[in-house]
Amino acid sequence: MSTLDPKGPSGLKVLNHAANPAPTRTLPQAPPAPQIDEAPIGAALAAAAHPDKVRIREVLAKAREARGLSYDDVAVLMSVTDDEDTSLLFDTAREVKEHIYGKRLVLFAPLYVANQCCNECTYCAFRARNSELPRRALTTAELERETRALIDQGHKRVLLVAGESYPNGSFDYILDAIRTVYGVRSERGEIRRINVNVAPLSVEEFKELKGCGIGTYQLFQETYHRQTYAQVHLAGKKRDFDWRLSVMDRAMQAGIDDVGIGALFGLYDWRFEVLAMMQHIRHLEQSFGVGPHTISVPRIEPAHGSTLADAPPHAVGDDDFFKLVAILRLAVPYTGIILSTRESAANRRMAFALGISQISAGSRTQPGGYNDLEGADAGQFAVGDHRTLDEVVRDLCELGYIPSYCTACYRLGRTGRDFMDMAKPGDIRSHCDPNALSTFAEYLQDYASPATRAAGEKAIQEILAGFALPVQNNARRMLQRIADGKRDVCV
Ligand code: SAM
Ligand code: SF4
User: Fold this and answer.
1) Ligand approaching nearest to the C-alpha of 199
2) Which of 113, 152, 267, 454 qualifies as a FRET site for 84, CA 20 to 30 Å off?
């Protein structure tokens, strides 16, 4: 058991947030560039037009073993249309989700640092030609205020987001921003993990990013369909499909082995996107021995100055959205799936059970949004869940989930393949379950409203009772340390 204390007064183990904790490894060489082969996707989609109930059941039986699915299996599940098969698909996804993740849901908040952008993505409010959008790159002092606002809500993990145009044209702005966020200390806590969603980088830039101690590098391909990609990205560096597709290879070559992929659902047929994503995952596994740490499933939301976002060309309805979450959960059972506040509270509740493992809460999608800085009223897109973190947390408890603020794995070097090697035989749960409870207890004591604290303490007792005895005993010891005033207690 460790007390991960960045200030270092009392801990059994002292970690420096700004230093990457992962042990030194030989960096991987450049593999062949990733390709999306559209022909087999077309063939699989054509075959999926004729559902075969026997084959669907075979695939679901295989999925229940929680060892993942092949590309062809995924294509079969996309043929599910009738109610009976759909409810079987959902039941299987719920079972696998529960088996691997228990009742944990990891919480984070996006932290937008700058919204200037050189690109012309037709779905995004930040696009260069959207002249009516107020532009801002947070100063160090503003960023410290934003970070403090998030810490004071109880957040421990943020996703740093920016458009692709930094002050003075220098990527150093992002590196400085990361150092600033890690450096903020509030009386009540600190940010312990920064994940980053910024435009594709070179291997050298990724090495600098890794040197700042980031958690996951995340980037969405938007659409894996090359022709659609060209149609919706009208100007700027982002027009280069291949530079974007190969970004995770460069991150991995630089030693960042927790990477997050995603597609912006609504630009093209969601079935195509999921199968193409499977090709991307297979490429990463074959090239680096590990697939993505997370997959994000954003759906296009209305955005200031975007007609495309008001009426996406391949809008994904709720039923298909739930299906794609369930299929991804079965296809890559150990890969985190992230759901943002783009979705409504009701849709989020449904999707949690089907496979979501990480969620944002209390989000603002514009720089300065957490302090209502002047001009910070137009976000990148409209959010669907407007509740505060406290309200989301209470709802999760009432639904039987345990919100987790755990950041232990990457700080203890359990990343990339090492993480997957622990996760696949199920060993990770003996870490994640107690860590979720201890970090949640910390949240309840330091930040929660009385109603949320009551709901949370009840939820902790219920979850604790369901743990196997050794894990339960360990968790009880950790909870006692939190009650005694220790913080950041993890295994
Ligand atoms: N500028 C970088 C980029 O484009 O990769 C990183 C940050 S960008 C602000 C983060 C993501 O927001 C994009 O990858 C895109 O998928 C998503 N996004 C943009 N417009 C959106 C919209 N209208 N609805 C939902 N998500 C949107
Ligand atoms: Fe810029 Fe990213 Fe928005 Fe495109 S999606 S306009 S690159 S911020």
Assistant:
1) 1
2) 267
For 121-146, the DSSP string reads BTT-TT-TT-TTS---B--HHHHHHH
Domain end call among 337, 367, 386:
386
Does some domain include residue 429? no
251 and 295 fall within a common domain: yes
Instruction: Establish if 5 belongs to a structural domain.
Output: no
Same domain, 81 and 137: no
285, two tokens: 């596994």
Residues 49 and 191 in one domain: no
Give the C-alpha separation, 25 to 228, whole Å. 39
> String of b and e for 156-194 (b: at least 16 CB within 10 Å)?
bbbbbbbbbbbeeeebebbbbbbebbbebeeeebbbbbb
For residue 11, pLDDT over 80 is answered with no
Q: Does residue 415 sit within a domain?
A: no
Together in a domain, 312 and 348: yes
pLDDT band at 491 (very low <50, low <70, confident <90, very high): confident
Residue nearest to atom 14 of ligand 1 (CA): 220
CA–CA distance from 246 to each of 8, 250, 277, 287 (Å)? 39, 7, 13, 12
What is the per-residue pLDDT across 77-122, written as a single tens digit (0 to 9) for each? Answer: 999 999 999 999 999 999 999 999 999 999 999 999 999 999 999 9
Residue 124, pLDDT above cutoff 90: yes
Beta carbons of 365 and 112 less than 8 angstroms apart: yes
Taking the centre of ligand 1 as the mean of its atom positions, its distance from the CA of residue 34, in whole angstroms, is: 22
Q: Whole-prediction pTM value?
A: 0.93
Q: Which of 113, 115, 124 maximizes ligand 2 atoms within 8 Å of its Cβ, making it the mutation to test the pocket?
A: 124
Q: Bridge partners of 13?
A: 4
Domain co-membership, 64 together with 129: no
46 inside domain: yes
Which residues have C-beta atoms less than 6 Å from ligand 2? 117, 119, 121, 124, 126-127, 163-164, 238
Render pLDDT for 256-292 as a digit per residue (tens, 0 to 9): 999 999 999 999 999 999 999 999 999 999 999 999 9
Last residue of a domain, one of 55, 70, 97: 97
For the cut 70, the answer to whether the pLDDT of residue 14 exceeds it is no
| pLDDT at residue 379 in the model | 80
Q: Are 239 and 120 found together in one domain?
A: yes
Ligand 2 atom nearest 118 alpha carbon: 1
Cβ(283) – ligand 1 distance below 6 Å: no
Task: Give dist(CA 154, CA 364) in Å, integer.
Answer: 15
Examine the pLDDT at 135 and tell me if it is beyond 90: yes
The mean predicted confidence, pLDDT, of the chain is 91
Determine the Cα angle at 331 with ends 31 and 76, to 5°: 110
313 lies in the same domain as 229: yes
Give me the residues paired with residue 337 across strands.
295
Quote the percentage of the chain above a pLDDT of 90.
Answer: 79
Q: How many CB atoms lie within 10 A of CB 434?
A: 26
Q: Identify the pLDDT of residue 408.
A: 84
